[in-house]
Amino acid sequence: MQIDPAHTSQKDVYKILTGSVIPRPIGWISTVSEDGIPNLAPFSFFNAVGEDPPHVMFSTVRSGDTNKDTLNNVLATKQFVVNMATEELVEAMNNSSINLPPDGNEFEYAGLTAIPSVVVKAPRVAESPIHFECELVHHYSFEDHKDGGATVMIGRIVMFHVDESVLLPDFKINRENYKPIARLEGANYAKIGEVFSIKRPFIKE
Q: I want to staple 106 with a disulfide (CB 3.0 to 4.6 A). Which of 20, 44, 96, 111 is the partner?
């Protein structure tokens, strides 16, 4: 079956895309407004995009041609923090997605602790075992959209915070202690589940 997104409703395109590209890591993004109001929200259009130097990206939709508080804050301050979500934090992460007014505090609503960052002004989620302090290097808003599109934000990681409980001696992450969660379609999420290994092919010169 061939489906032309140009002639398909945005709702149906969303279902096809988010049901196909799974699992997706969750970027739990904390920001602060120019007036000092903290904000916290999860985004499933998120991933690492390179390590030399380390960069991550996330995308925030603009439903109804309206910016989310996260987007406004990042564009204004050029900074944000990625807090990684785990099995223990899934309810708090979900609660932080509530549509509070701009002066609302998702940290307080979700029962989370906001702690200072080292380089950026945005606070971190104390309960999360891993944080990336980021500075915005590029953003791009989609063109030819139907309902506001989305804006992609690319940030350079300027400071890592990794709890010792999930860090191995050689700087690898202890996956069993970390227990990250991933986004699926609709209201569904996933745990790591079964893991298998396969080595990449390599031709010796």
A: 96
